[in-house]
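Review box. Two proteins, two foldings.
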Amino acid sequence: MSKKVDYKKDYKQLYMPKTVPEIVVVPKMPFFMVSGSGDPNGEEFAKVTEALYSMSYAVRMSYKSEDVPVGYYEYTVFPLEGEWDLLDRSKPATDKNNYKYTIMIRQPDFLTEEWFERFWEQTKRKKQNPFLEKVRFEHVEDGLSCQMMHIGSFDDEPESFARMEAFCTEYGFIRSSKIHREIYLSDPRKTEPSKMKTVLRFLVNKP
């Protein structure tokens, strides 16, 4: 493949939606993922994220090694994503210690289980991160979903979710899960909160 795959251009519908709700069908995709719980502002969450990026860059840069996966093509590393839920639904969603999450980074289609094992062992030899032990390789298919681009602080997301739910009600879709997905297109360490871009998404069905 001569051209470099860039998720913002080649998968624009999934990663660069408009700032209004829409319905999409999300296909099956391969991911590195780690599940956990607690405040995402804590040190543990930072280590989980670091483990996922270490693995993802090992795959991305493998073309420089003697061991290159079959079918390798050049691509931009995909953004961090998270599926979010609550440990205890009787507690308010503002209690960040009550969060339950699966953090993930999409992988290129050429990656197989066998290659995952190789990159996993290779990364563990190079990096001292206990959360590498928890990284797993799975395929996820969300299917029918409602999504939109949220611009602003994470704390303002409830307003966008309210718009998405109102859109679903208007067009006859029903939210089918309390879990939601976020795709992080901005680095919160470098972007002021009012300008951060996050794709918000939840599963729906059509009765």
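Next protein.
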Amino acid sequence: MATPPSLRIEILFAELNAADIAQHPVEVHGSLVGLICGGVGQAKSEWIKPLLELINDGQLPPPSLVQLLEELYQDTLARITDADFGFTPMAPEEEETLSKRVEALSLWVQSFLTGIAMAQPKLNRASSDVKEVIQDLAEIAQVEFDVAEDEESEAAYIELMEFARMAALLCYAEFGPEPSEIKDQDPMIH
């Protein structure tokens, strides 16, 4: 599933800047994914408030950014709930330096951890697998940004991205709604 043009990092960056929100788009995405994977309700009234608390001190941003956040939520939820759509953490383009991409991954992971902790009060009673990946994600969040631009570092970055992706999917499997609870599904699609 291709990313809609409106959800490209530079568009989100411009909207966040226009709203005076000093968050990187990867942080917004990480927070949103953390909330979703923590089992936040799928009604807009259930996810928008905690997201705004995480990214904008609970203040309502301009309507254009709210619309973009809704699109980002719908796109992210579709990707997490359907393996065919290919969920991945939001990341800068490959043309960016590896240091910038590693820094963005660290920001995404930090935001994911904050979002999931906010949405899932029983995180400390999670399965041992989830506790382990949360611990590993906490270590990824501390990764050094000053990395060599070589094939070995690039391969390590790709592995960390894949780990973050799988960790999010594991958390969603544990805390997200049961498939029968997902509303608004058209039985004709499946």
